[in-house]
Amino acid sequence: MRKLPVPILVLAGLFGIAMTWLVGDSLATHTVPTYVPRSRMPATASRPMVDTVTIDARDPERWQFIAFDTGGWDIAVRRFHVMVAGDAIGIDSVPFEALHSPPSVGYVATTFERDTVNEAIARWYRYSMFSHLLRPKRRIYVIRSRSGRATKLEFLSYYCPGPEPACVTFRFETLR
Prior knowledge:
By secondary structure, this protein is mainly β. It has one domain (51-175). It is 12% helix and 33% strand.
């Protein structure tokens, strides 16, 4: 009887470990934060300008438009698609609470075509092929409106209670 070469045994062992990990991960119970759909609350003197909104974006045919203040829409959501009316920039190195003023350069303009997209915010999530869950990236986005006003936002979740997909939740604050 012939012995198998060591490299083949090592590769077979690594393959077995990888398959065990992949199957285990796909069968594991995953929890995701869920939020009940809620509109933006108007800012008052007693309530800070930071707000959290959950957009019911379950209708695959209809965009939900959100304005951070009066004067038109700033962001639109449909299922996992997000588009902005103005420019956007993604920032990886700064926590939400630490960003107090908008960056002066680096914004990406939205291209309004058949498939309207803004590359800075288009992939705001990570998708797992094994759990089939969509999770927000740890990233802050700054949305600059057509009038030049800047708003920072951070995506928190993609799920309604249940969990049911397409309830996009983010917190935001107008930057001065």
